[in-house]
Amino acid sequence: MKTGFTTVTFRKKSIEENVAIAVRAGVQGIEWGSDVHVTDQERARYAKKLTDEAGLSVLSYGAYFRCQDENADEQIPLLVENALILEAPIIRVWAGRAAPANITPEGREEIIRNARALCDAAAPHGIKVAFEYHRGTLTQDIDSAIALLKDIDRPNMKCYWQPNPDISFEEQLAELKVIRPWLVCIHVFYWTKDENGTRCINLVREGKDVWKQYLDLVWDMQDIHTVLEFCKDDDDDNFCDDIAAMKELVLPRAIFVNENGVPPIDNAYDADARAELRRWVNIGDEVYGSADITAGGFEDVQYMFSTWGMLRLTEEQIKTCLPAAKAVFYGAGSVQAFARPYLNCGVRVFSAWAANGVPVAEVSVSEIILANKGFFQSPAIFKAEGKSGAIAYYKNFPANYHTKVGLIGAGMIGSMVSKMLTSNYDLEVLVFDPFASDEKLASIGARRATLEEIFSQCQTISNHLANNEQTRGMLNYKLFSLMKKNATFINTGRGAQIVEADLIRALQEEPARTAVLDVTFPEPPEADSPFYTMPNVFLTPHLAGSFSSEVARMGAYMVEECVRDMKGIPVRWEVSMEMLATMA
User: Fold this and answer.
1) What is the DSSP letter of 8?
2) What is the Cα–Cα distance from 347 to 330, expressed in whole angstroms?
């Protein structure tokens, strides 16, 4: 279900003000009314422009077409045109001007004829037509409404529903059950009557128990909208509270999870990410750990959002404590430490490994470009031997024109590095990856090579292998000894793939060789490691991955992935059990 409101709620607000309050309240879309806001094509274009700029959807076009107007033939094309401009999937209309008891047979036939004409004009564009469910029209009661819909006999003729304050709650529930097959939208409001019988508009939150019973009847209808129509005192704060209460009823429950809240979830899911997330799921600011989950109270949670520190629950705990869980959105990289129990329980796992890979790829590319120009050892040589010594040193490097660069691994990060190098620089990229197809290598601008070819031919070699049993200790002296006398080895991947004693030996044999190591094994190196004292080794503290402002990119990726999934758009970063065999 999508949540929104109809601009009938705020007739006195301008188009701009209605969009602004929609953004503040965090709705997904707007039903634009034809009575004040979208009265012609120019205003329709303007409303659509502002709606799009705010990242909102147009839920419907609320037209005050009664299907009984003298100039219906002229109005129908204009209604469809405005709906097309708005890209509204629904045109809401009224079923005449009289209650069933007061309509003449001729008047009823006129409504049927005009409704059919509008349906036929809208159908080629995929637009539905829906009657307002309203007193004083032929949808005043369920029997009249169903008979009218059946007589119109058009597949795109639908109906709204809203509570009728003149009948009992039990009768309202019965009506909603009957109208389900035609239902496209529910107008939400909560009215009561005072001691004098006067209608009072209350906060939706005050009627949550009532509305929960309504919505329980249609919870499985994902294609319908819930649209707020009336607001107590036309007050902005009351409106935002009404929308919040409606979303609590309609949207799936989600939670932030992390052990001890460290690192803070706020780093990954910033204010913008949270605002977008709250348009689609019912989520608070609380962060829950394993102890909270196992204590109970999360049986209705469908989605979990986390980052480094994701809960490592057992299959039994997941089945018992999170029986409704559908997906985990992990705003970080590797999911190896926690994913398998969730996947075994049918819980989908999404990872921001691609987002986490962006800064790694950026660092790798920058180091490759600098290494090709002899950057890393030049400053020390400059200080020790002067400018002439430094020039003599770097003149032995090929720089960055048609130079061969070797990448070990063409996974997410290796592929990004290759694309950056081949699209922005005149470099020849060689890749070792037995799992990558020829088509994939072509798409990233690289050509296949053996490890021996890469280490013997490339000026700079960058490691991006996945960390698993097959790759540990894979890079050894046999390969390092093949490096050119002034080649550079860069590792922003994992340290366990390197036989470090072999790398040290190769670097000691040719001091002009360079190693730039953002990762080691163990990490950091042991206190007596030669890495600390070797002038041709440059250690960095695992800085290539996301940190500071970059962490928010990972949360944004996961929020976007959740929204894509809920909209039915193909997702991009889902992790399968099969993928775990080759992922970092």
Assistant:
1) G
2) 13
**Close Cβ partners of 27 (under 8 Å, ≥ 6 residues apart):** 3, 4, 5, 56, 243, 279
Number of other residues whose CB lies within 10 A of the CB of residue 373? 15
Measured CA to CA, the distance from residue 404 to residue 317 in angstroms comes to: 51
For every residue of 434-446, which 3-state class applies, written as one string? CCCCHHHHHHCCE
Amino acid, res. 27: V
CA distance 302 to 298: 9
Instruction: To the nearest 10°, report the CA torsion of 550, 551, 553, 556.
Output: -160
Q: In terms of C-beta density within 10 A (0-12 exposed, 13-18 middle, 19 or more buried), how is residue 254 classed?
A: buried
Task: Name the nearest CA neighbour of 76 among 60, 93, 88.
Answer: 93
User: Given the structure tokens 């006195």, which residue do they identify?
Assistant: 12
Which pair of structure tokens corresponds to residue 443? 């798409």
Residue 528 vs residues 308, 475, 532, 538, 542: alpha-carbon distances, Å: 30, 22, 8, 16, 19
DSSP code of residue 549: G
SS3 at position 426: strand
Whole-model pTM above 0.85?
A: no
Taking the chain (584 residues) in runs of 10, the rounded mean pLDDT of each run is 93 96 95 95 98 96 92 94 98 96 95 97 98 96 97 98 92 96 96 85 94 92 92 95 94 92 80 93 93 95 95 97 97 93 98 92 98 97 96 95 97 95 97 95 97 98 88 95 98 95 98 97 96 98 91 96 93 94 76
Give the C-alpha separation, 31 to 488, whole Å: 60
